[in-house]
Fold each of these.
Amino acid sequence: MAVDDRPLRLAYLSYRSKPTVGGQGIYTRHLTKALVDLGHTIEVFSGQPYPVLDERIALTELPSLDIFNDQYPGRFPAYWEIKSMADILEIAQFSTGTFPEPLAFSYRAYRALKDRTADFDLVHDNQCLGYGILAIDRILPTLITLHHPITVDRRLEVAAAPNWRKRLSISRWYSFVKMQGRVAQRMPRIVVVSDNSIDDIHADMNVDRDRMRLVHVGVDPDLFRPLPGVERIPGRLITTASADVELKGLRFLLEAMAKIKTEQAVSLTVIGKAKKGGKAAELIDSLDLAGDIEFVSGVTDERIVELYAQSELAVVPSLYEGFSLPAVEAMATATPLVATSGGALPEVTGVDGETVLRCEPGDTGSLVDALRRGLSDPVLRARIGGAGRERVSRLYTWRQTAQNTVDQYREVLAMRQTETPGPRNLNTSTDPAGT
């Protein structure tokens, strides 16, 4: 296909696409819709949990063994479930304590695409980075989105581990990160969502800067908008967090709430699932906060917008963010935002006291101060909320994300057309890893 302005036929890969909570699923849902709105054709290939997609987008299911499903996470598959080499690979990696989905999914995606090269102009991989992606790039031009290096998650979880056995277990679980780094180093173009992530990917994964391009993530400002008819509940906070993921910093928000609670009534809505018996649940009980916290999951975007409209402050207490969709969604609703300076958050949220109330990551006292500033000053809340919406509407929309992503698609196609024939084009090995 000549590189011009004709609509593209895209194969979009997402190894898991949780539709309501989780950046990969949200990115998949909204970016693919925005791309279709621009006139392109998309087929999504995904493992469980499957995405929620626009009705114009085809979904090809590439089912995993679903080892980490919500009902029985970490289950061991029965022998009759093993039906392919990818299944064997998945269960073998799981048996050694490694997260197996990215590698196994990349093999499934390669098998699904190897006989369909005439159906697509380009493949877009959403942070799988399994070895099979290298094989796909040999048969179809391929672009990768890398939101942030998972090395950061590993580093923070290892640091928080209570003993050497747990540290060893976490390191083994995250050993797939080495594979992702090797794949990223060999891909011709990687889309990254923030300048901060570009710096971290270069430092942690040794990926050349000239292979990476910045394309910000977006929000739908017509969906995530102020609801003037909904009254804000005094003292109500809202956050999006995986309950026991150290990276998201929920424990620091819970500790800050306990201190604020001694001064005034305060409550918290958590967009996410509570984990029975987990660290967050134990901390909630020990701080006597059970009656002040509500976990909400599996609800529509419209309901989430209502929850923002009921809240006086939105909080992103993360230790690190590669971008932060919850931050821009909160800002789009004109809900004043309290956010840490972790990772890309300063880059995304703007200036302290103008579009955000900033605090230090992992510092309960700093978070308490920021919450006090917001809860005590309605004029400040109104000003920051309005300025935050203006910033997001100007800089971060899914249409802008899609347009900038298409620019990268066309650059990849142009690179492939001018490429000197070599191993990528001539290698007919059936080994997806190409090793």
Amino acid sequence: MSGGVDSSVAALLLQQQGVPIVGAYMKNWINEDNVIGDCPWQRDIEDARAVCEKLGIEFRIVNLMADYRRLVVDYLLDGYQRGLTPNPDVMCNSRVKFGVFRAYAAAEGFSALATGHYARRVASTTAASTTVGALSCSALPTDGPSRAPQDGAPTVSEPQFDLLEGADQNKDQSYFLALLSQEQLRFARFPIGHLAKPELRRLAAEANLPTAAKKDSQGICFIGEVKMADFLKAYVPEHPGPIVRATDGAVIGQHRGLHYYTIGQRRGIRIPSNTDDKAYVVVGKRAVDHALLVAFDGPEAPGLWTSECRVHSLSFIGEPITTARRIECRVRYRDPRVFCEFIPEVGRVIPNAPPQSASIKFDQPQRALASGQILALYAGEKLLGGGVFV
């Protein structure tokens, strides 16, 4: 329970169904380094505790600060220092929430972990084979219930599940679950996935939950309302370099550090275009001289629009895709699904193993694909898995 209304209603619905539950807050970050921004972990804990008191259930605080720093924060900072644009929310789900936190829940004797995600878990419509490959980008050990094989490959006797988008398309969070494995999904529950946000707010108000009117958090996963630039400023040394116009190689300014920018960014470049109805946009980063590449925003901007790309660290919720296939994908959260051809690169590392990388050919060019971000794979509303942009 995060202290927000979504996880509060998730607990409410489970209790109404007669499910014995315990509320738990993942203590991941306490802003001990005084990062600029609102990091309201104490308020969130008190809100979560108040909801549990209202429901009459046990409340726990589970300290995962060391794991979170190692698995999410270090990944985030390392990625930005290497010129990537990491996604901490996706990694928080796959590595921490359904990784070490799931392991804690299983070790404590719990049979499932419920969250306030807007997503739906349903029985699989695909017949299970002997095993189902489930590579996880996190490369963490799978510490689920004792009946699960150590390698994370479930046997045919175990139930298989699909993960569907949330029924409320305005709140769907399936994208952030793109790197979950079948074993992780088997242990997961998403009680509010069938609800629209207004209906969820109504249920919270009717139950007089303390979080019924609480504003949704927009910050980094379980850190809070901290701007990414402020977070990076506190931990990543600045390395100035030239701002270069990609169309002619002209140096038109200086930047403080490449980690402050991502492909497709328009704000914060601080270079006037001096051309009516034109604005500069980031189109690339050049590591050799720490150059930030910019161009006028538009279809002709070099590097801004992409028809083909590669992804690595593939993770599949069900059967891996081992042959070229036309599917849908989502290139970033809140973007619509788009059609593409998924061409797996099979056998590059281990023969007959599930593919770890693939080539993607989009039906229509996509804007501002940043290395390190997540590509989520779909068959309609069914989430197939995901990978990381090269």
Amino acid sequence: MSGSSDHIDPSSMPFVAPCRQLDMGAPWRWMRLGWQDIRTAPRQSLLYGFVLMLISYAVAYLSYQIGSFIMMVAMLAGFMFVGPVLAFGLYSISRQIQGGKKPVLGYCLQEGRKHFSNEMIFAAILLVVFLIWARAASTIHIFFPVEAEPDLSDLAIFLGVGTAVGALFSAVIFCASALSLPMLLDRKVDVVTAVITSINACFRNKGVMLLWGLIITLCVFVGFFTLTLIVLLPLIGHATWHAYQETIDAHNWPAHGEQE
């Protein structure tokens, strides 16, 4: 990469990267490619998955110790919100494989440090949204019935409002993070452009991205209760890299340097 590419004039770059139209089979292709990455780099992928699994169970245990089911749900939702940031190393593994390199965890850490400022900006955005969501979740308690043993009909409004609010926040976070972090890893692009690019791609491929979001949710849910997060979290992370590669045309932005 020539030195001139290190000094990009932001005003000369597009505001958003174009996206491709996807077919409904795309999420399954991403999962297959993600599985191929795990088979190519099993040690690196599963070690990363093991660490993420420990974090998720630690969050659940702390919530249980606090003794609040609502807090547990909120903290687990928060973990899902920041999950894309934690999966940065998995994107790096897939990128190394795609570049014909032997994946090295040390290089993942090196890339993490290189993109630390962008990661922190993105994490801060997610944290603000999560805090707003947590506040909204506590406010929803006004709809909880006062009866000692409410039946399902009494809980209908509470469950309906809670589900709607949770779905809204989840949709915002998903659209913003679905493809933005792989783009930040791959290209010399700012956080705002990456986030808007991700949102634009989700809106232009609503059905496909809805299916992809449901697959992710199902994998996390099944993995958490069947102790298979060690495999399913890396699978999602690697698949997300391939989702970005197939969906976003980011050739207008210079690529970050390849592994030395």
